[in-house]
Amino acid sequence: MGRCGAPRLSFISLLVAGLSITAVIILVLGWALLETREEARQIAQITTANMANSLADNLKSTIDKIELSLLAIRDEVERLQKPGQGDAQAIVDVIARQDARHLDLHGFRVIAPDGTLKYAVTNVVNHDAAMADRDDFKYLRDTPNAALTVTPPLFGAVSQEWIVGVAMRISNPDGSFGGVVYGALPTANLFRGLAALNLGAGGIVALYHANFQLAARFPVIDGQRDRIGKKTIISDQLRAIMASGVPAAQYEYTSATDGVFRTGFARRVDGAPYYVVVGLAEADYLADWRRRARRLVLFGAFVEALVVTGLLVLHNRVIRMRRLVGSLRDSRERLRQLAVDATLVEERERQAIAADLHDDLGQILHVAGIKLGIIGKALPEGAKAGGLTSELADILELASRKLRSLISQLSPSVLRDMGFVPALHWLADEMARTYGLSVTLEDDAAAKPLSSSQATILFRAVRELLINVHKHADTTEALVRLCVRDGRLHLTVEDSGQGIVDWPIVPPVRKGFGLPSVRERVISFNGTMDIRANPGGGTIVTLVIPFDRQSATILGGRHDHSPDIGR
Question: d(Cα 396, Cα 560) in Å, to the nearest integer?
Fold first, then answer.
C-alpha cells in the first residue's frame, strides 16, 4: 500500500507545486500588468496636464501681448482726444504698427461710443459694423473702471469671422465713455494651434468659455463644425469643474459626443474666462501597454508551458525512479528472504545430518561397543587380546563423544526441546568448553514469543558474534543481554576487547554466517543491527527484532528463569 501510495503522493506534491508556481506566475503577471497599466494611466495624466498648462500659458501670453498693444492704441486715442494733440492719421498709424506685430490677429479696431467702427486697418470686411447691442460693449460702456475684457467666442462684425475679442475701455478726459479698442483673435488660428498637438487617434483638445461656449476643438467631430460660439454637450465632470471655477483639475470621463473614454485635464487661463481641456483616449495611451501585456501574457504562457512540461517530465522521472527503487527494494527483500530461507534450509539439513549421524553412525558405534564388550568377556583372563579390546572400547567411547559433540554443533536439540533462552545458556557453556570464552547471559525474564525461524536465526547470529569475539576481540569475556521493549526483542552482544572499525566498514569475514549475513537476516524480519564502539573499550552489537506473534511457536515462548550464568 505504501509503495502504491508513494507515486500518488509524489504526483499530488508535484501537482501542488505546479499549481503554486502557476499561481505565483499569474500573480506576478497580474501585478506587473496592473502596475504597468497604472503607470500608463499616470503618464497620460501627466501628459494631459503638461499640454493643457502649456496651451493655457501660451494663450495667457498672447492675451498679455494684445493687452500691451491695446494700451498703446488707447493711450494714443485718449491723447488725441485732448485739444490740439494730433489728428486721426496718427491713430491709424499706431493701429497699423500694432497689427504688424500681431500677425495671428485679424487686427485692432477702435469702436466709437455709439458702437460704430471708427478706426481699423487690417481685415476690414464690413465698414458699417455696429456693436452697440453686444454684451461686452455694453459692459465696458457701463463700467468706468472695467479691466481688460476677453469676450466669449463671437462672430466678428468687422472681419465677418469667428473671433475671441480682447477689449479695453477708452475714457474721455472727463471720465465719460469714449469707446472701445478691440483685438480680434480668430478662432481659426486657435484651431490651428490646437491641431499641432499629437494627441493620438482618439485624443481631443478644446477651448471653452466659462459659460460653456466652444471656442475651438480638435479634431472636429462630424456634424459639429457649426458649434463654435454655441454651448455644446460636455461631460458632467467638466461642467462641474468649470462651474466651480477651480484653476485646474484632472478627471476621467466618457465623452457624450463620441462615446470615447478619456483621461482629461482642464486648466483655466489666468486672467481670462476660458478653460483649456486636453483629453487622451484610453485606447491610445494604453496601446503600448496592451502590446506589452500581450507579449507578457505570451511569455507567461510560455513559462507556464515550460513549468507544466517540466513537472510532467519530473513526474515521469519520479515515477520511473520509484518503480526502480521499488524493484530494487523488492529484489533486496527477495534476496534477504532467500538468505533466510537458505539459512532455514541449511538448518533443516543440519538437523537431518545430525539425525542421520545419531541414528546410523551413533547406532553403529553403540552396537560396536556392545559387541566389543561381549568379545572382551569371552576372552580368558590374562589373554593378550584383552588389552587390545580395552583400547578399542576407549576409542569407541571417544568416537561416540566426538559424534555427540558434532551432532550438538550441527543442530543443538536444546533449541527445539527447551526454547531460545535455554539454548543461549547451553551456547554459553559450549563457548566456554570449546573456545575458553566466558559468556555472561543477562535476561529480563520477560516472555519472548519468537517464531521458530526467528529463534533459529538469532541463535546462529549470537553464535557467530561470540565466535567473532573469540577470534578478533582479543578477550576471554563477553556479555549477552536480552530485554523486551515495545514489543521488540533487544539482544546485545558486548565485549571489552580491542574493538572493531566503524560499521558498515567491517573487515572481510570468512564465508558463511558472517556479520553482513547476520545483518541481512535480521533486516528480513524488519529488525535492525547496530555496531558501535563500547565507551569502556571493545564492541557492542545490538540486534532489535519485532516479535512475530502470529507465527510464534514454543521455541520462542519458552524461556529460562534460572540465574545468570557467569563463565
Answer: 35
Q: Answer whether 123's CB lies under 8 Å from 158's CB.
A: yes
Backbone angles phi, psi at 164, to 5 degrees: -115, 120
| Distance (Å) of CA 374 to CA 379, 382, 390 | 9, 16, 12
Query: What is the SS3 assignment for 173-203?
Result: CCCCEEEEEEEEEEHHHHHHHHHCCCCCCCC
DSSP symbol at 121: -
- Beta-carbon contacts of residue 219 (< 8 Å; ≥ 6 apart): 195, 204
* 146-173 exposure pattern, b = at least 16 Cβ within 10 A, e = fewer: bebbbbbbbebbbbeebbbbbbbbbbee
Spatial distance between the Cα atoms of 554 and 11, rounded to a whole number of angstroms: 47
d(CA 204, CA 185): 21
Quote the radius of gyration of the chain (alpha carbons, Å). 60
pLDDT in tens, 178-207: 999 999 999 999 999 898 888 888 999 999
Q: 246-273 b/e with 16+ CB inside 10 Å = b?
A: eeebbbebebebeebebbbbbbbbeebb
So what's the pLDDT on residue 298?
86
**Residue 401, pLDDT score:** 73
CA pair distance 213, 217, nearest whole angstrom = 11
CA distance 265 to 369: 131
pLDDT value of position 451: 85
User: At 278, phi and psi to the nearest 5?
Assistant: -125, 130
Gap between the Cα atoms of 111 and 50, Å rounded: 38
Q: For the chain, what percent of residues have pLDDT higher than 70?
A: 84
The amino acid present at 283, given as its one-letter code, is A
Q: In which element (H, E) is residue 149 found?
A: strand 149-155
- Among candidates 287, 340, 315, which has minimal Cα distance to 457? 340
Identify the CA nearest to 314 among candidates 13, 20, 26, 4. 13
Which pairing describes strands 438-443 and 477-485: parallel, antiparallel, or unpaired? Answer: parallel
Question: Cell triple for residue 320?
Answer: 520511473
- Beta-carbon-side half-sphere exposure of residue 335 (alpha carbons within 13 Å): 10
Residues of the chain with pLDDT under 70: 1-11, 14, 83-86, 222-226, 336-337, 339-344, 346-348, 350-351, 354-355, 358, 362, 381-387, 404-405, 407-412, 500-514, 549-567
Comparing CA positions, the residue from 492, 498, 441, 436 lying closest to residue 467 is 436
Looking at residue 474, what is its pLDDT? 85
Residue 564's nearest CA partner among 493, 446, 481 is: 481
Distance CA 52, CA 265 (A): 7
145 in Cβ contact with 158 (< 8 Å): no
* Residue 340 pLDDT: 62
